[in-house]
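thought: user wants a sequence for this fold. calling inverse folding tool.
action: design(structure=
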């Protein structure tokens, strides 16, 4: 008998600039379903992230330290290549609103066209997290607003320790 998806690992990719409570909600739920969850943080020069790849990796590691099945990695290039390197067939993506669906639908099919073995599974965040996006968090940070209800406590502490007025 073949192995089930639960025995395989999955990849949850994104820029996570920064990680939000919505991201963490999906990570916690996906890691409960899969034997191993790889949170893959894209270098993403095109998006001009507020935080460096190293900072985003550190915030992710701090935020997921309580989850033994989660591995945090940085990557550059095609997600299908990373999935092949890591030996997984499953990609996790989040859908907050209908506006996310079109983009995610295209990306899922693009990945499948490059590797027909890949399956994309879509998670909806918990209702209280549906309005949260990293871009909303960055905008609030840029205007020196409070983000502690939008991101994990470890992210608030990380940003406060930086002391950077543009991010605190």
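)
observation: tool returned 168 residues.
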């Amino acid at each position: 008998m073949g192995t089930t998806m639960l025995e395989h690992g999955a990849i949850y990719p994104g820029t996570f600039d920064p990680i939000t409570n919505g991201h963490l909600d999906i990570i916690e739920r996906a890691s409960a379903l899969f034997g191993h969850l790889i949170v893959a943080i894209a270098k993403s020069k095109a998006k001009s992230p507020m935080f460096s790849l190293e900072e985003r990796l550190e915030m992710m590691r701090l935020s997921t330290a309580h989850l033994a099945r989660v591995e945090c990695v940085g990557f550059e290039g095609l997600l299908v290549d990373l999935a092949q390197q890591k030996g997984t067939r499953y990609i996790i993506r989040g859908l907050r609103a209908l506006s996310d669906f079109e983009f995610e639908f295209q990306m899922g099919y693009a990945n499948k066209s490059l590797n027909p073995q890949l399956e994309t599974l879509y998670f909806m965040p918990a209702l209280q997290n549906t309005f949260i996006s990293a871009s909303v968090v960055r905008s609030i940070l840029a205007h020196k607003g409070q983000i502690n209800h939008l991101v994990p406590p470890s992210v608030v502490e990380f940003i406060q320790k930086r002391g950077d007025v543009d991010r605190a």
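thought: summarizing for user.
answer: Here is the designed sequence. The two ends are 53 Å apart (CA to CA).
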